[in-house]
Structures are given as structure tokens and as C-alpha cells.
Amino acid sequence: MSQKRSWRIYGTHVYHAFWRLWNLRKIPSPSLLQEQPLPQSVSHTMEADVQPVDDGIPNPYLSGTGFQELTPEEDLTRPGPSSRARSNSTSSKSSSSSSSSSSSSTSSSHLVRLNRNTLAINNRPIATVIAKRNQAGTIEEEKRGKHGKQYKISSDIIKGIKNHIDSIPRIESHYVRQQTTREFIDGGKNLTDLYTDYQTQCLSDGIEAAKIHTYRKVFNDDYNIGFHTPKKDQCELCISFKNAIDKTIELQNRYDQHQLEKELCRQEKSNDKTMVKENYIVACYDLQAVLPLPKGDVSTLYYKCKLNVCNFTISELAKDYCDCFVWSEVEALRGANEIATCVWKYLTKMASEINDNNLRITFYSDNCCGQQKNKFMFCMYLYALSVLKIKSITHKYLISGHTQNENDSVHSVIEKAVKKCLRSGPLYTPDQYVTIIRTARKKGNPYNVTEMCYSDFVDIKNLTEICGAQFSKNTEGGTVKMSDIKIMKFEKHQDFNHVGIYYKTSYSDTDFKEIQFRNNRSSRTRTSTDLQDFQLKPLYQSRLKLSDRKNSDLKSLINSNIIPQSYALSYYNSILF
Ligand SMILES: [Zn+2]
């Protein structure tokens, strides 16, 4: 394609270069020659007269234009073949006309040689220019691609392609950046696979299928779709720095700071790991990529919206222990409330098991604002310190782009177990995932799974509203930006009645700053005693309703027996409407 275009540009360039030279030399128009078409018999004589040019390219335009390769001696003395031809064929022509043509072709020959030497081109583009010159002296418009006889793809075919692309379920927005208009589809298939499916569908529907290049054109031009792979993103800052040709001082400083934070964060985590003891827990938490249902090798599943199952994992460092909280999308969503509920359940369990007023816990996680880096989570920590036997909770945020942590290996063990299980048949219900997760680990402690029901989730946002928490000012009057926070620390004071909230904006900071914890309703600083009487309320009163598309897709899978009837009776009928 681009090669074709570059030839076109080259051709146009030669066109104009030649014309400039032509006009400079004030050579009479060769249009005269074209105004009088030559008889067939004569033109044969002429063609025989024309010597082949040494570039080996046959030149059909040469006949009748007066162009041929001449030696310097020849071209000064010998008239051009066309003028000779014309004087033969039109004996009634005046001699002045003949001599003018003769001088034209002689000059043309100079020009041919000039062009061949300076522009390094053969006769063909020159002859084309001459042939395309109109009476006004300009060259007629480029006609390539403008003949209007292009094959038009019918609107039905385009519609068919679009229907097929529209039928592919999009990845739900949590996993993709929300600021983008780009949609994502499951990376389990590529464009060629999609085209093959489209072709098969057209065949079974008895309709004409478009060619793959048309399908690709519609896919690329009319949509903004990416193939989603659950792999974690590479660090944008590191990549942009690596790719930047002009590394500005500002970019260099940002990159150096980023590298420093990354290194300090790693050190901090490995230091924390060595300090783990009975009453000091260090844990990472993260939500696994969604587990879809049904899951199997059936190709049609790709085009159906599936039931999503969430698995939130909390891995304890240096303890060989991992808690998994599993729920399906009819039980709960996967936002701040849900994540905070799981962490709350974990804290409650650990506080009661360890039963030590000096229990300290450090969490590590990524920076997802929708899940854990928000005031709802902070309020939950405050509440936990108020009502549980915990001395302090510290949350350290891993550096964006470098958030690899212990949960990744847990998730990978589970994914492998799922793959192994699929060999003996598809998965249909959340219970099956629960069993797989429980038995995924072959060595060490099995993962501890808590199956979450809608009634288990608590409304942390309501708690935040009640205590009217604000974390935006520090005790020195400065503004606290959530995005700058690297470490948050919630600690009970000596009297166990007041919780101090501290933060660092860099892993290189030696001292914490304190947040001026305020509420909207009164200027009085809240103490932990204020939260002690608070009762957490349930988040949901019933199961959630599936989207219409998901409901109808799952129903169609039951009707076509891709989901066996027994699973429909035992599970799906209770969630579909
Ligand atoms: Zn980076």
C-alpha cells in the first residue's frame, strides 16, 4: 500500500520536474502531434523505426511522439521518427509544419537525454506527461483511483460485519482505564479468528461473507476495540522514558524519583517480611482477574456474556497463608464497599484469633482508587481500630507500574488449576471455582476460601457518611493529595481512645505527617470512641439483577444445552429472570 503511494508521489514529482524543464526550454507543444492521429499502417512503420531504449522497459508511448534514444550526432542531424512518419502519411502538410515538428522532436530528444541524466528516469514518465497535456498547457488531473468504477461493498455486508462485531461482549469497565473511549474484548481470539467465526456464521445463514480485508477495515475504522489480556500493564513512565528521544531534565528527574521509590518500596516490603511475628502481620491484597462462567472450550461461549466470579485474595508474607473471598456478580459488585468488607472480615478474624492488644498489621496493595485507596477504606480501618483488638494498621501502596506482589503467584496457581480442571470438562457454577481454589495448592497450606453471600457485605460508605470523614488536611494546614500518598498509618494512642492518622508521600521520608481528621458536621476531632457504638449495616437486601443481555445470553446457553439442564435447575434458574 505505502509502496504504491510512494510510487505515486514519485510519479507526480517526475511529472512536475519534467514540466518545469519543458517550459524553461520553451519547446513547442507536442499536442500537435496528438491532434492528428496516425493511420494504423504508418504507426506500425514507426514502431519498427523506434529503437528500444537501453533500460529494457518497452515504451508504448514513444510511437508518434518523436521520442527515441539518439546519439548526440544523430539527434542533431536526423529528423525524429514521428515527423518522418507524418510527412509520409500526410503529404499535403505544409513544409513549415513539418519543420516545426522536426525541431520539436529534436529538442525533445535533448530533453529526454537531459532528463535521463539529471532525473535518472526512463522515457515512459516523460511520454506520459506529453500525452496528458491538454490545450491549456496544463497536465490533466491524476485519474488513478478516480474512475468511479470501484467495486462497492453493499451496505448489507457492512451491516452484517457490524452485527458480528457488536455481538462480541465487551470487557466490563473495571479492568480497563475508565477515562478511555476504547473498548476491550476478550483476548482469547484474534482478528483472524473473529473473521473465521463471521465467515462460518455467514455460511450457515446462507449470506455472502465479506473478504477479510473488508472485515478488518470495518473493525479498525469504525470501532476502537482492543484485545484485552489480563496481564498487568507495563509501567507507562518507564516505557515513555525508555522511548523518549529527547530526555528532558524534568522527565529524567521524574524517572529517577520513580526508580528510587520503586527500589525503596521493595526494600520496605522485604524488611517488613523479616519483622513478621505472632502479633505483627504483613499481608498483600489484590482482586484476581474475573473468573467467567460457564468456562470451556466451546467457541460460542466467546460471543456470550458470562456470569463473573470474583476472587479477592489476602496473602500473608512469611506465613504461608492466604485468604480467598469468592462471590459471583449476583451476590455483589466489586467496588470499595466489597473490598473493604473482605478486609474487614479478615481483620475481625485475625483480631479474634491473635487476641493481643498490640497486634499490628501492615498491608500492601496497588493504587486502585475504586477499591482500596479511598476514604471508605480509611474509615473502615478507623472503625476496625475502634472496635477490634488491633494497635495499628499501616497501608503501604506499591509503586504504580511495579505492583507485582505475592498475590500474583496465588492467582497464577489458581489459573493453572482451572486450566487443568477444564481438561475434564467445562465449569458451570461458582461452587466449582470454590472447589478448584480450595484444592489448587499441592504443597503447603491450602488456600482458605470464604464464600461470600450478598448478606455478608457491609455498607462502609454509610459508615463514612455517618462519621463525615475528611482526609484532605494535615495538622500543619497543608493539603493532602490522595494520589501522592505512599503510606497511610492508623494508630491507637496510649489511652486507646484516640486514633492518630499519619501519612508519607515518599518511601524516602523519615517522618510521618499527621492528618487533621475532621468531619463535616462539627469541628470537633473525632476519636475512636465515637465509632465504637456504630453498627455496620448490610449493603444488599437481596441478590443483584443481571443485565438484560447477560440474562438472555445465559438463557440461550441453557436452551441450546451448552449449559446442561441439571445446572440450570440447580443454579441458573435461581439467578435468571
Ligand atoms: Zn516504572
Brief write-up:
It holds the Pfam family DUF7869. The protein is an alpha/beta fold and about 575 residues long.
Description:
With 577 residues, the protein is of the alpha/beta class. The chain folds into three domains: 2-131, no CATH class; 155-228, no CATH class; 257-544, no CATH class. The protein contains 20 helices and 14 strands. It has helices at 2-24, 31-35, 40-49, 72-77, 81-89, 95-118, 123-131, 155-166, 191-205, 212-221, 236-243, 249-274, 336-354, 375-387, 406-422, 430-439, 460-467, 528-532, 548-559, 565-575, and strands at 183-186, 225-228, 280-287, 291-293, 307-316, 321-328, 360-365, 392-397, 448-451, 469-470, 487-492, 499-504, 513-514, 518-519. The strands form three sheets. Strands 3, 4, 5, 6, 7, 8, 9, 11, 12 and 13 form a ten-stranded mixed β-sheet that branches. A two-stranded parallel ribbon has the order 1-2. Strand 7, helix 14 (375-387) and strand 8 form a beta-alpha-beta unit. The two termini are 52 Å apart. The model is unreliable at 25-102 and 521-525 (pLDDT under 50). Zinc ion binds at residues 235, 237-238, 258, 401-402.
